[in-house]
Amino acid sequence: MKKNLSIELKHLETFCRVAELKSFSKAGQQLFLTQPTVSGHILSLEKSLSLRLFDRSGREVRLTKAGKIFLQYASRMLRLKQELMNALYEFSQGIHGELSIG
C-alpha cells in the first residue's frame, strides 16, 4: 500500500453505500450512478490500497476483514465532511460558534 495515497470522497461515499446495501447496482441507483461507475470507484479504492475490500463471490457482496476496518474510518471521514460543510454553511449565514474536531 502506498504511504501517500489519494482517496476521493465520492469513492468513499460509493464504498459506504455498497457496504450498507450489499449491492453494487442498488448503490448505483441510490447514488444516481451506473453499476460500471460504482464498480470503477470500488476498483480504484482497492487498487490504491492494494487490498480487496469486498468479497464478490455469491449473489451478495460482503466486506472483507480489510473492508470492515476501512468502513469504520470511511464512515467517520464522511461524517466529519458533513460536519465541516454544516459549520461552513452556518458561518456563511452569520451563525458563529466553535468547531471542535477530534
Could you walk me through the main structural features you see in this protein, from its secondary elements to its overall organization?
With 102 residues, the chain is mostly helical. It has a single domain (9-92), classed as Winged helix-like DNA-binding domain superfamily/Winged helix DNA-binding domain (Arc Repressor Mutant, subunit A). The protein has four helices and two strands. It has helices spanning 9-21, 24-31, 35-49, 65-92, and strands at residues 54-55, 62-63. The chain has a two-stranded antiparallel ribbon with strand order 1-2. Strand 1 and strand 2 (62-63) form a beta hairpin. The longest helix has 28 residues, at 65-92. It is globular and about 50 Å long.
User: In sequence order, what are the helices and strands, one letter per element?
Assistant: HHHEEH
Structural class: mainly alpha
Please, what is the CATH homologous superfamily? Winged helix-like DNA-binding domain superfamily/Winged helix DNA-binding domain
Please state how the strands of the largest beta sheet are arranged side by side: 1-2
The CATH topology corresponds to: Arc Repressor Mutant, subunit A
Low-confidence stretches: none
Instruction: Label the overall shape.
Output: globular
Strand content: under 5%
Set down the secondary structure blueprint:
Elements: H1 9-21, H2 24-31, H3 35-49, E1 54-55, E2 62-63, H4 65-92
Antiparallel strand pairs: 1-2
